[in-house]
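Hey,
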Amino acid sequence: MNIVLYGEEKLLLAQRLEDLKKKYQCTSDDMNYMVYHAGETPMKDIIEDALTQPFITEYKMVVLKNPIFLTKEKPKKKLVTDEDIKLFLDYIEHDNPTTLFVIYHDQRNFDERKKAVKSLRKNAKWYEVEKLTFNQLYKATREAIVHRNASIEDNALALLLERCGNDLLTISNQVEKLCLYTHSIKKEDVERLVPPRVEEDVFKLTNALLNHDLRNTMRVYQDLISKKHDPLELIGLIANALRNLYQVSIMSKKGYRDNDIASALGLNPRAIYPIRKNAAHFDITELMEKLYALSELDYAIKTGTVDKFRGLELFLMRI
């Protein structure tokens, strides 16, 4: 049996794999559960294992992780050869019914044009693990805290999700830390223990930039650089923040509600209000001009004509 298990929510993905292991009683203890990484173990060895009959139990499970050869990614070094792909295709089309051959991928970037992917579409069961909505995250986080015999104030929970984003694994780790610290979580506890995401600082940087506040712009920028953030990463984040301001502004003027805007742009619904509030104070033309300037800067840095540190500093000082 061939199974494709994929999605961007790593914690739920791992839980779904555990569910499959329990359902078919596959464990490493009885030598009926093996994990391989594409490109690290020869494909012929992986296929040979998949063709081997299970030991004592009815089924065995072979998990293939990091299947870059099935995606749109183009690695610098080709780790999976054409001969490997032929072996893979032959197995997929003539699989061992006592083996659960699981393609495990924590992204959603399969290349549907590839022959191997087309074959999997025909010869495998596909299970997508979707990211939780904000409301689902909110409910699940509170339940996880209650499950640990703790409680959390509403404003503390809102800040926790703001700082963790929609990454369930990060939320889970931070919940564990907070519950070990106290059984009555307040906003101050989250502020003390959960580090702000870089997006928070970029939000401050963007506001200072658009308010023509050079002092605060450079203060936040230097703080980000001291935290080892690469200028190219910051350019991408600033561009994204400007793009959000532009899109939220346009959609607000067209009468869209905050929840509709959040759904269309893939943003946290709680983030829309402050973005919309900020967008009302900024000129749309200026937003577009800065976005264009950032795209030119990005190109200049990547082609080697401008130093990334100097280039970003000059962009920020030109206010």
